[in-house]
Amino acid sequence: MALQALQSSGVGLRKILSHFPEELSLAFAYGSGVYRQAGANSNQKDAMLDFVFTVDNPVAWHSKNLKKNWNHYSFLKVFGPKIITTVQNNYGAGVYYNTLIMCDGRLIKYGVISTSTLIEDLLNWNNLYIAGRLQKPVKIIAMSENVALRSALDKNLKSAVTAAFLMLPESFSEEDLFIEIAGLSYSDKSPEGQFTQLMTLPKSLQQRINHIMDPPGKNRDVEETLLQVAHDPDCGEVVRLGLSAIVRPSSMRQSTKGIFTAGIKKSVIYSSLKLHKMWKGWLRKTS
Question: TM segments (predicted)?
């Protein structure tokens, strides 16, 4: 069943956006604060709102945001926008998060990522952190006319379709696919077809697959490895392992960076909220 956006959420989200510097190439919101979750019975107005802001010039954006929202930042704010941007770009998945912020009576969290970093992740799946989020339902609040960004967003979804198909069995239902690719159909999974699809996957995923499959000392090129994988009955599992090799390290690095960007106290509180949410979800499933 398709997720439903909460009534009047667009107006409220744009109002929150007005509290931040305007220079955004993309702004979107996601999660239970935006979409009505299946089986959720709690007041969703209490749910944290999650945002991602994409900016062309992180130093300039953080500089303006520090003037408007100084209290949003951890102790790193005393070092200024250049250090904040260095932490953003060089550690974790290229995202700087401020969390547990009260804005217009709502608890919010927002991440800041540079446009160039996002485009690289959308095209090549360098870490699949924000690119992975954009393969799921999100509420776009603002988007510039950046042609390269729009093209990369489209390519990311097409890559998701390809990867998902490679991991599915020969026959599958609508429920096996993301809602964005539910209408697609394919005639068969021949080795030739799988090889064509593997060759269109983002560069980082191809390289991870090559690393997994290439025997020590042989040093085969990526194309040769992908041709072998295309004929392998476990092709889908190999793709899944490649994805895991991308996502797990980037998520761990981003979580570690959160201790510094959010501060220890906020990190502990945020982790407790996440665990509480997971526990409630588990109770619903078992009841």
Answer: none
List, in sequence order, every residue forming a beta bridge with 35; answer none if it has no partner: 5
- 114 has which bridge partners? 55
Residue 56: CB atoms within 10 A of its CB come to 15
pTM for the full predicted model: 0.71
The answer to whether the CB of 108 falls within 8 A of the CB of 16 is yes
Q: Please give the helix or strand (H or E) that residue 146 lies within, else none.
A: none
- Tally Cβ neighbours within 10 Å of residue 90: 9
Q: Where are the alpha helices (DSSP H) in 106-234?
A: 115-124, 130-133, 147-167, 191-199, 203-213, 222-230
Helix runs in 18-146, H state only? 58-68, 81-90, 115-124, 130-133
Mean pLDDT of the chain: 80
Is residue 1 within 8 Å of residue 117, measured between CB atoms? no
- Please name every residue paired with 285 in a beta bridge, in sequence order, or none if there are none: none
Contacts of residue 148, defined as CB under 8 A and 6 or more positions apart, other chains included, come to 119
What contacts 46, CB < 8 A, 6 or more positions away?
107
Contacting residues for 37 by C-beta, under 8 A, at least 6 apart: 3, 44
Confidence at 184, pLDDT banded by 50, 70, 90: very low
Region 81-110: what's the mean pLDDT?
90
